Amino acid sequence: LGGYRFERNFALLFGIQYGLSPLLLTSPGIVLGAYYDPIVVGFELVDSNILSALDDLRKDGIGDVRITNTSVYAKVFIAEGFYVAGTSEQRRLELYDRGYIKYGQSVLVNGKYEPAQAYYDMTIETSAYTVGVGFQRISENMFTSFDFLRWTIPSEQSYSIKSKYNNNTSDTNFMKNLEEEQNGRRDRWYSSMQLPAAMVFTVGFAF
């Protein structure tokens, strides 16, 4: 039973999402939706503390991190099974225990010489919209959808830093270099959080 478009004109959807995206690659998403022909609206949640994949790869590649993304989405069918989609997203990246180390050097901290190293947590937030095209198939009890590409339109980005160790030395040169390192890390993640997503596949149940 069923086909490219559901035989009824209404269905509730629950699925799991995975694809080529900085957010989804190691953190599959949870998808909730409501289908009322010819529109699907719903909610997507990514949280690496709830659902994750490739944990060793993530830790080896970018260290201790929490990835979250909450989004609302809408799809409008333009042909049998094909749709255009848009989302409004709140992306958040929490990087823990980032370090800046100058081996063999020391700095003055509160009247004492300490190793020239500093550690901090960094949080990066990105508000963005995406637009994309895809294909969805719904049967009697299951559904699948495939976003070929989602273009990202960033709206606003911000970051914050929580100092943990040796972030208040009186050594101005060390602090300048630390700030440059933090800004470089921030800018790299700003760029990563703006990348488009491709081949986003969702599979789940239709009720």
How would you describe the overall organization of this protein?
This protein is mainly β and 207 residues long. Helix content is 14%, strand content 64%. It contains two helices and nine strands, in the order E-E-E-E-H-E-E-E-E-H-E. The chain has helices spanning 55-62, 172-193, and strands spanning 2-3, 10-20, 29-36, 39-47, 65-77, 82-109, 112-139, 142-165, 197-206. Strands 2-3-4-5-6-7-8-9 form an eight-stranded antiparallel β-barrel. A hairpin with a 2-residue loop joins strand 3 (29-36) and strand 4 (39-47). The longest helix has 22 residues, at 172-193. The model has no long low-confidence stretch (mean pLDDT 87).
Layout: helices, strands, pairs:
Elements: E1 2-3, E2 10-20, E3 29-36, E4 39-47, H1 55-62, E5 65-77, E6 82-109, E7 112-139, E8 142-165, H2 172-193, E9 197-206
Antiparallel strand pairs: 1-7, 2-3, 2-9, 3-4, 4-5, 5-6, 6-7, 7-8, 8-9
Output mean pLDDT.
87
| Biggest sheet strand line-up | 2-3-4-5-6-7-8-9
Number of helices: 2
Q: What composes the largest sheet?
A: 8 strands, antiparallel, barrel
Rg measurement, Å = 22 Å
Shape: elongated
**Distance, first to last CA:** 14 Å
Uncertain parts? none
Tell me the strand percentage band. Answer: over 45%
One letter per element, helices H and strands E, the order comes to: EEEEHEEEEHE
Helicity, in percent? 10-25%
Structural class: mainly beta
Count of β-strands: 9
